[in-house]
Design goal:
Strand content: 15-25%
Oligomer: single chain
Distance between the termini: 54 Å
Largest sheet: 6 strands, mixed
CATH architecture of the largest domain: 3-Layer(aba) Sandwich
Shape: globular
Strand order of the largest sheet: 2-3-1-4-5-6
Order of helices and strands: EHEEHEHEHEHHEEHHEHH
Length: 318
């Protein structure tokens, strides 16, 4: 059997389990995960090397995690949906992941329409089967079969890794013969500098509620790696003074809590001690600023850094 490789777009509504699935298959945390909708804001690629018989490699699957399909109401939302469409244009196969415990609604229909219009083969992944009784799963499968001629329908639990082997085997059978696009020791295209911003944002999402999670974003201003210490300076942007007050907390307690949890998470990932400085700035209406939203794209930030994912020694935060 020839070596097979290709790009697979993970498509679905917010909180369907896209990022959980990516992390489960990669065996590492590549995307932040919270119970809040629209946690993922940009495309993230994960490289899955599938072993073959006799210790060889059967193929390489490049997974593209995308923002949740939703009706955009801001420049940020429109940027997120543009990320979804770009991923669909460049893939070989679509994994449409849905929450098997949820009833079919307008959100599922919107995701289904995007999958249909992509022109690519579609696998339907019925996620969270660990939360549904087996006798109720067959009617769910029957209902989805009526909506599209899926290449495969695979019940899975991304959280428990159920159905992963069948999913990878079926995907490889469909992907074309091709090269190994990325080295085996690489698992993502996202540099650590920008993943650090996501880890900090994850802690903001976990620590706050109401409008705060959706009105904040994070930019890493400094990222300096040394063998035993990584220095990071990051700015958390929000839209109003009241939001800034909540993020800071009484005597800075909330910001300290966010920073501590982010630092501990980053130390586990980086394998070094981390010195993290966090700042909060107000930028009114940043979600409606097309220029600012475009500048949040880590690929654009990387271009501004001259192609380097790391800050130079002595670089200070703005």
């Amino acid at each position: 059997m020839p070596f097979r490789s290709g790009y697979v777009c993970i498509l679905g509504r917010p909180n369907a389990g896209k990022s959980t699935l990516l992390n489960a298959l990669a065996g590492e945390k590549l995307a932040i995960v919270t119970n809040k909708p629209q946690t993922t804001r940009s495309r993230i690629q994960g490289f899955i090397n599938v072993p073959g018989k006799k210790g060889g490699r059967a193929g390489q699957i490049i997974l593209i995690d995308t923002p949740g399909v939703h009706r955009p109401d801001s420049s940020l939302g429109r940027k997120m949906m543009a990320e979804v469409r770009e991923a669909l244009e460049t893939c070989d196969l679509v994994w449409l992941i849905v929450d098997a415990t949820e009833k079919f609604g307008t959100g599922e229909q919107a995701a289904l329409n995007l999958a249909k219009s992509s022109g690519h083969p579609v696998f339907l992944l019925l996620n969270k089967i660990d939360l549904i009784q087996k006798d109720k799963l067959l009617p769910v499968i029957a209902l989805w079969k009526e909506r599209l001629d899926f290449r495969e329908i695979i019940p899975i639990s991304a959280l428990r890794r159920d159905g992963m082997d069948r999913l990878l085997e079926g995907t490889l059978e469909l992907l074309p013969a091709g090269p190994q696009y990325f080295p085996e020791d690489e698992i993502t295209d996202q540099p650590l500098r920008f993943f650090a911003a996501e880890i900090i944002r994850e802690q903001v999402l976990l620590a706050t509620k109401e409008e705060i999670p959706y009105a904040t974003t994070v930019i890493v201003e400094q990222f300096e790696e040394k063998p035993k210490l990584t220095r990071i300076a990051a700015t958390i942007y929000c839209e109003r003074d009241g939001q800034k007050a909540i993020l800071l907390g009484k005597h800075g307690a909330m910001l300290k809590r966010i920073g501590t949890q982010a630092r501990l998470a980053l130390e586990r990932i980086l394998g070094t001690k981390v010195f993290l400085e966090s700042f909060v700035k107000v930028r009114p209406g940043w979600r409606e600023s097309r220029e600012f939203v475009e500048d949040l794209d880590w690929r654009r930030q990387l271009e501004k850094l001259g192609g380097s994912a790391h800050s130079g020694p002595g670089e200070e935060p703005d």
